[in-house]
Amino acid sequence: MVEDPETGEKVLIFNPRQQLWKEHFRWDDVRVVGLTPTGRATIDALKINRAIMLTIRAEEELLGRHPPP
């Protein structure tokens, strides 16, 4: 269980085998935004928007490879 930083609610981390990405996340340029407690908690727990990842996504965007299909 991980904690939603917005509500403090304990939730299960996102499971891509059982859940749809678009129901829990969206892109805001190179940042991933959580739409649900599960999405927000997963982003926070996995540090999905850490600086190095934002830099990599920005470079991928310049190469036409971001956002992913």
Account of the protein in words:
By secondary structure, the protein is an alpha+beta fold. It is 38% helix and 17% strand. The protein has one domain (2-62). The chain is built from 3 helices and 4 strands, in the order ββαββαα. The radius of gyration is 13 Å and the shape is globular. The N and C termini lie far apart (29 Å). The mean pLDDT is 97.
- H and E order: EEHEEHH
Percent of sequence in beta strands: 15-25%
- The residue ranges in which pLDDT falls below 50 over 5 or more consecutive positions are none
What would you report as the Rg, rounded to the nearest angstrom?
13 Å
- Count of DSSP E strands? 4
From the N-terminal CA to the C-terminal CA, the straight-line distance is 29 Å
User: Which whole number gives the mean pLDDT?
Assistant: 97
Instruction: Give the overall shape.
Output: globular
In which order are the strands of the major sheet placed? 1-2
How many structurally independent domains? Answer: 1
The number of helical segments is: 3
Profile the largest sheet. 2 strands, antiparallel
Helix share bin: 25-40%
**Oligomeric composition of the shown chains:** single chain
Structural class: alpha+beta
What are the defining features of this structure?
alpha+beta; two-stranded antiparallel sheet; 69 residues
Brief rundown of the structure:
The protein has 69 residues and is α+β, with helices and mostly antiparallel strands. The chain is 38% helix and 17% strand.
